[in-house]
Amino acid sequence: MALKATVFKADLQVANLDQNQFGDYSLTLAQHPSETIERVMIRLLAFALYASEDLRFGRGLSNEEDAAVWEIDPSGVTRLWIDVGLPDEARVKKACSRADRAVIITYGGRPSDMWWQQNANALTRYKNLSVIQLSPEDSTKLVEVAGRTMKLSWTIQEGMVYLDNASITPIVLSAQA
User: Fold this and answer.
1) What is the pLDDT of residues 22-71, one digit of tens each?
2) Phi first, then psi: what are they for 9, rounded to 5°?
3) Sign of CA dihedral 65, 70, 75, 79
4) Measuring CA to CA, how many Å separate 155 from each of 64, 68, 79, 137, 139?
5) CA distance from start to end of the chain
6) Contacts of 1 (CB under 8 A, 6+ apart)
């Protein structure tokens, strides 16, 4: 019998002062059975960083044609492709060729650093690609606020991400948007 996804509900209040983007979003995230809570929360961070009415979560780890998070406009054009983790160069190339902009959010400390060292030369040729390396400390902060039902307030200002879930002291992430 196949394992089922775990469902998370998240109400986000996003104030992105850097992009002049403000909004409230009620989201449902499905955690694939092989996906860590850390990756789920980084997908949520990705949504907050690039929030828009057209931004959506992909169909999950089992569907290689989808991004982790992506923005597809009403005419069907992929405006933004966001991957989470350490994708191979072929996947990055696909993302950059299919979308106006591509973003990779890496995490995991040393493996992330090694991935960047191995791929930096090849990836710098993609002019529509941005790479964000999330520190292990920031990943841990995200995991600490995880819950099956979440109410999160995100403020992005000068490249810093401030996160408040009303039950803990607000945390600051150093991800660059």
Assistant:
1) 999 999 999 988 899 999 999 999 999 999 999 999 886 667 778 999 99
2) -115, 130
3) negative
4) 31, 22, 23, 19, 17
5) 41
6) none
Strand partners, 8: 29
Q: Which DSSP category does 163 fall into?
A: E
CA distance 159 to 64: 30
Q: Residue 26 and residue 13: Cα distance in Å, rounded?
A: 9
pLDDT in tens, 75-119: 999 999 999 999 999 999 999 999 999 999 999 999 999 999 999
The angle formed by the CA atoms of residues 173, 49 and 169, to the nearest 5 degrees, is 35
pTM for this predicted structure: 0.91
Domains of the chain, each with CATH number or no CATH: 6-173 (3.10.640.10)
